[in-house]
Amino acid sequence: MKIAIAGSGAMGLRYGVLLQEVGNDVHFLDTWDENLAAIKKNHGVKVWRDGENPRMVKVNVCRPEEFNEKVDLIIVFVKDMHTDEMMNKCKHLIDEDTYVLTNQNGIGSVEVIEKYVNKNRIIAGTAVIATVLNGPGDVDFIGKRGAGSVNLVNVTEKPDSFTYKLVEEMKKAQMNPALKTNYKGTLWTKLFLNAVANTLCTLMNITMGTFAAYSNSKELTERIVYEAYRVAEADGVKLEQTREEIVEHILYVSKYGNPLHYPSMHQDMSTGRPTEVDYINGAIVKTAKKHGLEAPTSALLVDLVHLREEMRESKVLIEVVQKVTK
Ligand SMILES: NC(=O)C1=CN([C@@H]2O[C@H](COP(=O)(O)OP(=O)(O)OC[C@H]3O[C@@H](n4cnc5c(N)ncnc54)[C@H](OP(=O)(O)O)[C@@H]3O)[C@@H](O)[C@H]2O)C=CC1
Ligand SMILES: CC(C)(CO)C(=O)C(=O)O
């Protein structure tokens, strides 16, 4: 399969490297100057496993506008607010045969991708896997080889031969793919996890394991999940797990799956980048409004994350002012 990775950050590098290593022809695209420069300078990317055994993996990287080859699949792995910009930069690569895969967190990217490609060629889903971008051209794959899993779901809910082929490639790459046929249900299952773990760990500056160890973590998780569950039901989402099972799953993944992980939203908060909270808890609030409901817990969390984002900027400003006035 010939694949373009649209967004070669933590997850783009992880999917791309794993699929390349099992024989796919993978081309990495990115717009972040330092990342492009580091990968080109080092003739590849530095890949760690759980912070150990770094190795250099040779990869091809360039800007989307510099790449002009026909590909079978584009894998979008930018943050949600950059999906439109990235798709626009990749639109010359899309013809009537091109498929687009997104396993981004949050709700909203598929609607953007639909502006560029017919929905029968969009494969959505979720990545139940943790990855950390240490810096430009330097990535840490959390979990042993074969750890983590991927849920794939066609937006049409009708898997076709290309989707089965992709599942096979992911199996070879030990990515543990599961093919689903419940589009919204698949995305919301991950949304519940991110609405709890990403948001609370970012606000509190803690790992998922620290959150799970909090004496009131179950009640706090229930508060967010139960509210969101009602919203999902009102939106007609077919949920395959009960509210209680979802809460149990979130606490299990936090305690045993990724206890040392700072979720991707935390990584954005600490590198001074915008977070995806509007596409996570914000999506719950937006969907609630659509049905005349309210989601006050998620609404508060969205506001608090934005407050932290702004505090981060004002802290930098205060430091600059202090230096200048010294
Ligand atoms: N990391 C994780 O463990 C997981 C992440 N996800 C989801 O996958 C999607 C992609 O996330 P992820 O791979 O973590 O994102 P990253 O932030 O690692 O990378 C996304 C893009 O952001 C830009 N970028 C990253 N860091 C910087 C920086 N310091 N300065 C400037 N630009 C930067 C890069 O290019 P550009 O400038 O071109 O945007 C990069 O391609 C998101 O929707 C996320 O929620 C899902 C499961 C797990
Ligand atoms: C919490 C985690 C790792 C779940 O897979 C995630 O989605 C993220 O870090 O954004």
Automatic annotation (TrEMBL):
This is 2-dehydropantoate 2-reductase. Gene3D superfamilies: N-(1-d-carboxylethyl)-l-norvaline Dehydrogenase, domain 2 (1.10.1040.10), NAD(P)-binding Rossmann-like Domain (3.40.50.720). The lineage of its organism: Bacteria, Bacillati, Bacillota, Bacilli, Bacillales. Catalyzes the NADPH-dependent reduction of ketopantoate into pantoic acid. Keywords: NADP, Oxidoreductase, Pantothenate biosynthesis. Its EC number is 1.1.1.169. Residues 183-308 form the Ketopantoate reductase C-terminal domain. It catalyses: (R)-pantoate + NADP(+) = 2-dehydropantoate + NADPH + H(+). Pathway: Cofactor biosynthesis; (R)-pantothenate biosynthesis; (R)-pantoate from 3-methyl-2-oxobutanoate: step 2/2. Belongs to the ketopantoate reductase family. SUPFAM superfamilies: 6-phosphogluconate dehydrogenase C-terminal domain-like, NAD(P)-binding Rossmann-fold domains. It comes from Terrilactibacillus laevilacticus. Residues 3-143 form the Ketopantoate reductase N-terminal domain. InterPro entries: 6-PGluconate_DH-like_C_sf (IPR008927), 6PGD_dom2 (IPR013328), ApbA (IPR003710), Ketopantoate_reductase (IPR050838), KPA_reductase (IPR013752), KPR_N (IPR013332), NAD(P)-bd_dom_sf (IPR036291).
